[in-house]
């Protein structure tokens, strides 16, 4: 059995279930915590007696990332629903809106949205039926399909971008700009490391 070392339960000190994030307490980088405990603190505290502190810290972070991502997606879908557009539809339109000439190959779109070619083909077909984009063969490669945003699709996306942005700001408002900046940097480091692993 691995003995805990510096990791206590939700009411203890140190580690994933401790008070390092307590209000008024600053970490090594001078960032003050928000205070309070959540359900994950309580979960981690039950594991603390039999797990290594480093393992618990990673486990708590993974739980929180999944919960935040789920809550963010759920809230965005709920806010977009009255506008008659789904989150995936807006994200696909946004990919094309950012692209040169508002056009991407189906393969590039699949990479951008982290989807399979079959999933992209299905989604593109659904949005094409709405008149928000068009498909055609690439001029210099008949094996490649290009997807181009229509004026109607661009207008539809721009109508609801503000709703998406306002929802994101509201959900992340518990973090100061400084904390958001640090979290962005930390998550970028993780994503780059995961990408490097995919390339090996």
Describe this structure in words.
This protein is mainly alpha-helical and 200 residues long. 57% of the residues lie in helices and 9% in strands. The chain has a 3-stranded antiparallel beta sheet with strand order 1-3-2. The longest helix has 28 residues, at 53-80. Residues 1-23 have low confidence and may be disordered.
Per DSSP E runs of 2 or more residues, the count of β-strands stands at: 3
Choose one word for the global shape: elongated
C-alpha termini separation: 35 Å
Mean pLDDT: 83
The major beta sheet can be summarized as: 3 strands, antiparallel
Amount of helix: 55-70%
Which structural category do the helix and sheet elements fall into?
mainly alpha
Q: Radius of gyration, rounded? A: 22 Å
Contiguous uncertain segments of 5+ residues? 1-23
Number of helices: 7
Please give the oligomerization state of what you see: single chain
What is the strand arrangement across the widest sheet? 1-3-2
Order of helices and strands: HHHEHHEEHH
Beta-strand residue percentage: 5-15%
